[in-house]
Amino acid sequence: MATMVDVARSAGVSVATVSHVLNDTRPVLPGTRQAVLSAIEELGYIPNTLARSLVTSRTRSIGLAVSAISNPYFTEILQGVEAGALEHGYSLLIADPHDDPEHELKVAQLLHERRVDGMIVAPSADHDGLVAYLGRHSVPTVFLDRVVEAPSDDTSPSGQASASDRAGPFDQVCAENIGPTAQLVTHLAGLGHRRIGLVAGLPGLSTTGERIAGYRHGLAAAGLPYDERLLAHGDSESAAAERATATLLSLAAPPTALVTANNAMTIGALRALRERGLSVPGDLALCCFDDFAWADLFEPRLTVIAQPSKEIGAEAVRLLLDRLAAPDRPGRVLRLPCAFVHRTSCGCSDQPEKSTKGNVS
Questions:
Q1: Could you read off the pLDDT of 97-120 as tens digits, one per residue?
Q2: What is the helix, strand, coil percentage profile of the chain, to 5?
Q3: Are strands 118-121 and 333-336 parallel, antiparallel or unpaired?
């Protein structure tokens, strides 16, 4: 097996120069750098990661903590994170916090003890302990999908501070939620629906709050009143969404159209409808937040908001690497646009699949 000495001899440089090329610890002339890289490739030299971490105080590893890794949405995010990490020579340590605050904190501690260079986390609804730990230990962190508010005494004149204003030292990346959800509601209202229900996610998650805000915004834009009885929480998972949908269907005046706020809850809603022998869109029109691989294989094909899942993962890596390069810069919140994918579960006639990006105002 080739050694660093062999690489140095082949490239005609010192062992120290090879080390500087491998670890980026000192500028090296382009010609010299290329000679070292060519020797590494020719000899098949494999750098010692442990030795490199002792020199650089970095392990070239990223901790990724996301719940429900089996969820197609988070699976695609994982693919984006993995591709971005590998592109820049980083490995991943992956853990599932199960959306449980205590387990989430243990996961963060374990990843920190493994000396990861930074973390990418989809935080739980009760994330105060996690945020406090990461801040106390100055762990470079990017929050994805769900935004958090760092503790702060600064508020706007109204007494409220936005997540972007209170991001503190953390970077965050997520999809737009309010405008796209409103777009689903206004689309259904444009088809004549006046009682539009929402199966919302787990209370406390920023995605839940923002999609509820989008639902209410869409109702207002369509000139429809908000009726709290038409909103039920499916807790971001299938079984609870099935129960929530059953609750909505049992109303004296049930909804004629339904918006589900993530892909797992869409499955639960469809189960509840099937149990009652109701058809989509004949008995109830359906629009969903989250696209997934088989959404166009349902009958009817599901009209959805598609999130840029892989892009969210890739951007999380980019933000983390930027943070590692400039630890003291202010935190940033990056929101990526979603796409409205027009199919037939909303009650429109079958047509070639149409996807449009952009949000309603």
A1: 998 999 999 999 999 998 999 999
A2: 40, 15, 45
A3: unpaired
